[in-house]
Specification:
By secondary structure, the protein is an alpha/beta fold. It folds into two domains: 30 residues, no CATH class; 108 residues, Vaccinia Virus protein VP39 (Rossmann fold), CATH 3.40.50. It contains four helices and seven strands; from the N terminus they run E-H-E-E-H-E-H-H-E-E-E. Strands 3, 4, 5, 6 and 7 form a five-stranded mixed beta sheet that branches. The chain has a two-stranded parallel sheet with strand order 1-2. The termini are far apart.
Length: 145
């Protein structure tokens, strides 16, 4: 197991349990991982940071690798008018994106969604969660008819 986090403190806590740790997704090795998982992260980062994370994680996947990711949406759906990525929302885990917004970010980062879950509602928080499986867009096999 390996770890990527934005804080040295978090990585220090898992040192000895992992084979390697990274503070910066740009430092991830190329074509190295079979599976990468991002859980409870997207609602804490802005689109620019998310795009960089996705691009670098996809680059670090082996040819048949998979990136599993979770993201939050507002229970009534996030729109351009309700999307908010301010620092306050990031710190509180309130950056919500609709499935269409996530698809645009993923495709803009060189990825392709191959599976998306049905939403799981968290009514007390006014949000819902989706889970995704993402692969590099170049790994999709195109079948000719």
């Amino acid at each position: 197991m390996y770890a990527l986090d934005i804080t040295a403190t978090a990585l220090e806590k898992v040192k000895g349990l992992t084979k390697g740790e990274w503070l910066n997704p740009e430092a991830l090795p190329d074509k190295f991982f079979d599976l990468a998982i991002s859980h409870l992260v997207t609602q804490h980062i802005d689109n620019k940071t998310l795009e960089g994370q996705i691009r670098n994680v996809l680059r670090s996947l082996k040819r048949k690798g998979l990136f599993a990711m979770q993201f939050a949406d507002q229970i009534n759906g996030t729109t351009d008018e309700t999307y908010n990525e301010t620092l306050e929302y990031q710190q509180g885990g309130g950056v919500c994106r609709s499935p269409d917004m996530m698809r645009a970010v993923i495709e803009g980062s060189g990825g392709k969604i191959v599976w998306m879950s049905q939403p799981r509602d968290f009514v007390d928080f006014g949000s819902r969660w989706f889970y995704l499986h993402i692969v590099p867009a170049t790994s999709i096999i195109r079948i000719r008819k």
